[in-house]
From TrEMBL:
Coiled-coil region(s): none
Protein name as it appears in the record: DNA ligase
TM spans (from-to): none
Listed Polar residues bias regions: 1-12
Keywords: DNA damage, DNA repair, DNA replication, Ligase, Magnesium, Manganese, Metal-binding, NAD, Zinc
Residue stretches making up the BRCT domain: 614-695
Family that this chain belongs to: Belongs to the NAD-dependent DNA ligase family. LigA subfamily.
Binding site for Zn(2+): 433, 436, 456
Pfam families: BRCT, DNA_ligase_aden, DNA_ligase_ZBD, HHH_2, HHH_5, OB_DNA_ligase
Region of interest called Disordered, as start-end residue ranges on this chain: 1-31
Length: 695
């Protein structure tokens, strides 16, 4: 059901275009407004259809919400333009005809939105105006981004699983729902009503979503986990649904017969008791301040969750109060969705360009029409490799969805095919390196392409700046600009040339004074005493990153032993594997690289790994793991300091880990640590700890 339909979307005029067309046609102001409303409704209906029926949106949520807000505003200011069939009065989209339909015993509604504190207060005030003497408590729940499902149980057995549809009539997907392992076929426990409808969200974890998109072969990518969940559930063949790794959180009771319950909190407990997963991050709040704190907390922490949420749902806890508050149009008055700024926006892919990396890799990147995502202007994004561009079918000129989740670098998710005009261009990687003109090579079985010219200026520049960088040899007084000057002057051709630089050569550079020349020489001298692992990292060996360099150095301890090693020996080291092993071995066999190593040795550069013997110290017996980017020091420097104080660096998150230190852009380790209850600290905590034990 993820397939696109092949109808061409109708022309969507901008408001200005529409007004001018109407003016030309000589319409009155009222007629113009009515026509504008009609256009808005049409656009929203189209978007609803693609989103709810095709599971393949043509607008981003932000664009959709904008249209909806505008329509709501006009309808509020001009009640005469309101109609019962306006999308503001209805939920979702009509169910598709060739799927069995189910009338819901109780309508499945939508939720009104609040985008900020003020709108939350407005909602609250409206509720208070209706029930002036009431004391409210609130249940705060994460707003899981999936699709709503009503599960009917008769005498404890699952009989119907129906989607929301248009709110009154949904689609019957019972067979497919039965394939979701976390949804019980029979309710557990003794307290089982004759008939009950458990409502909740079917969703797909971020990981399963990414995996699914990687496996989609016919360029039909899902825009987000919500569409992927809906598209995976709404399949004619339940074996497909079964293969899609869907999950479920129960969050509400609909129709219930033969049992009385009084609060939403109680409902959640019952649902959990019956054997459903209920989201663990629920909170019973007694004031709006508590509610607001909950919303603020999850605005950032949501990125550590293994699934996507787009906000928080706040429900008035007391069901009698809920009943009294009732419903307006399509939204209950007793609940509101506090929505976070979207992580996905649509923009235009202006061009695809390539960078040459430090190992010669050809790295395509997207030049985007600048766009703001969660407060940051995004104008470029990495594109991995040509295969990935083709798999996603990204064409120059396309409208694309761009995503910025957490602090991760923005990514281009997919093109919006429905917005193509036919002028878009299919992209091919250049045949020749854009800097040196050498033919680009592709290694069979690898998606990557390379400029093989070891003298390529682009590649040289990257490899030299990498060598002096913090995590490598840390020649911190030599910046990118100096590197460029040194290359241009011909003083540096490879990294060993740093150790032959003279004071006069440095002084000949524009802007280099005596003092800075001395500082540079001092830093170069100091860099001779870095460890083997940092040298290996600095040498620009394909696939050898910081961690791999540490593994290699830790295993061989000296450069000579590494140079003698066979390919098998390297591959066999835990954490290396055939791809890295092969590329490392090839690099080491290259005569030019061997010569480079000898030049470095002659210059006095350390070729040994300092033996990290277990030291005794104030941190003995404690294990640490660092994740994410640190600001005050590199990760390896921090690890070194911990080891020097007797601490141990762990290789992964486990229950026995004493401390997880979290920098910026922390990934899955944080979520895992939180799950296993490991203490999590920020960088400042570590800085303080190291300071406290400074020897
Ligand atoms: N991009 C598009 O073209 C397009 C088109 C249509 C709709 N949309 C998106 O969908 C929204 C409207 O959809 P909607 O009517 O489903 O409203 P909604 O998604 O904003 O809120 C209602 C839904 O929230 C979900 N939900 C998740 N956790 C919940 C919880 N704990 N308790 C209760 N409900 C919970 C349920 O599925 C419920 O149906 C729009 O604001 C827009 O973001 C986008
Ligand atoms: Zn080149």
């Amino acid at each position: 059901m993820s397939t696109n339909n092949d109808t061409t979307p109708e022309q969507n005029y901008t408001k200005e275009e529409e007004t001018s067309l109407l003016e030309q046609a000589g319409k009155s102001e009222e007629e113009q407004l009515a026509a504008h409303v009609a256009t808005l409704r049409h656009q929203i209906e189209e978007a609803n259809y693609h989103y709810h029926v095709q599971d393949n949106p043509i607008l981003t949520d932000a664009e959709y919400d904008q249209l909806m807000i505008e329509l709501l505003r006009i309808e509020r200011e001009h009640p005469e333009l309101q109609t019962p069939d306006s999308p503001t009065q209805r939920v979702g989209a009509a169910p598709i005809q060739d799927v069995p339909q189910r009338r819901h015993p109780q309508p499945m509604l939508s939720l009104a939105n609040a985008r900020n504190e003020k709108e939350l207060l407005d909602w609250h005030r409206r509720a208070q105006n209706i029930l002036p003497n009431a004391q409210f408590s609130y249940v705060c729940e994460l707003k899981i981004d999936g699709l709503a499902m009503a599960l009917t149980y008769e005498k404890g057995r699952l009989t119907i699983g129906a989607s929301r549809g248009d709110g009154m009539i949904g689609e019957d997907w019972t067979q497919n729902v039965r394939t979701i392992r976390t949804i019980p076929q029979r309710l557990r426990g003794d307290l089982i009503p004759d008939k009950v409808e458990v409502r909740g969200e079917i969703y797909m974890s971020t990981k399963s979503f990414e995996k699914l998109n990687e496996e989609m072969t016919d360029n039909r990518l899902f825009a987000n986990p919500r569409n992927a969940a809906a598209g995976s559930l709404r399949q004619k063949d339940s074996r497909i649904t079964s293969s899609r790794n869907l999950d479920f959180f129960g969050y509400q009771l609909g129709y219930i017969q033969g049992m009385r319950i009084n609060t939403q909190w109680e409902a959640l407990e019952l649902i959990r008791g019956w054997g459903f997963p209920v989201n663990p991050h629920i909170q019973l709040a007694h004031s709006l301040d508590e509610v607001m704190d909950f919303c603020k907390k999850w605005e950032h922490e949501r990125f550590n969750l293994p699934y996507e949420i787009d906000g928080v749902v706040i429900k008035i806890n007391d069901l009698a109060q809920q009943e009294e508050l009732g419903v307006v149009a399509r939204d209950p008055r007793w609940a509101i969705a506090f929505k976070y700024p979207p992580i996905q926006v649509a923009t235009q892919l202006l061009d695809i360009r390539v960078n040459i990396g430090r190992t010669g890799s050809v790295n395509p990147w997207a030049l985007l029409e600048p766009i703001n995502i969660r407060g940051v202007t995004v104008s470029r994004s990495a594109l991995h490799n040509e295969e990935d561009i083709q798999r996603k079918d990204l064409r120059i000129g396309d409208w694309v969805l761009v995503q910025r989740a957490g602090e991760v670098i923005p990514q281009v998710v997919k093109p919006i095919e429905e917005r193509r005009t036919g002028k878009e261009e299919v992209y091919h990687l250049p045949e020749n390196c854009p800097r040196c003109g050498t033919s680009i090579i592709r290694i069979p079985d690898q998606a990557m392409a390379y400029c093989p010219n070891t003298q390529c200026p682009a590649r040289n520049f990257e490899s030299i700046t990498h060598f002096v960088s913090k995590g490598a040899m840390d020649i911190d007084t030599i910046g990118e600009k100096t590197c460029e000057q040194l290359l241009e002057a011909g003083y540096i051709q490879n990294v060993a040339d740093f150790y032959r630089l003279t004071r006069d050569q440095l002084l000949a550079m524009e802007g280099v004074k005596e003092k800075s020349a001395d500082n540079m020489l001092k830093a170069i001298e100091a860099s001779k005493h870095r460890s083997l692992s940092r040298l290996l990292f600095g040498l620009n060996i394909r696939y050898v990153g910081e961690k791999t360099a540490q593994i290699l150095a830790g295993h061989f301890l000296t450069m000579d032993r590494l140079l003698e090693a066979s390919e098998e020996e390297i591959i066999k080291i835990p954490g290396i594997g055939p791809k890295i092993g092969h590329s490392t071995y090839l690099w080491l066999q290259e005569p030019a690289n061997r010569a480079l190593i000898e030049q470095l040795r002659e210059a006095g550069v350390t070729m040994e790994e300092e033996q990290k013997q277990k030291k005794d110290g104030p941190l003995s017996g404690q294990t640490f793991l660092l994740t994410g980017r640190l600001n005050n020091m590199t990760r390896s420097a921090a690890e070194e300091a911990i080891v020097n104080l007797g601490g141990t660096i762990a290789s992964g998150v486990s229950k026995s880990l004493s401390h997880l230190i979290v920098g910026e852009d922390a990934g899955s380790k944080l979520a895992k640590a939180q799950k296993s209850g490991v203490p999590v600290h920020d960088e400042q905590w570590l800085v303080d700890l190291l300071e406290e034990h400074k020897q």
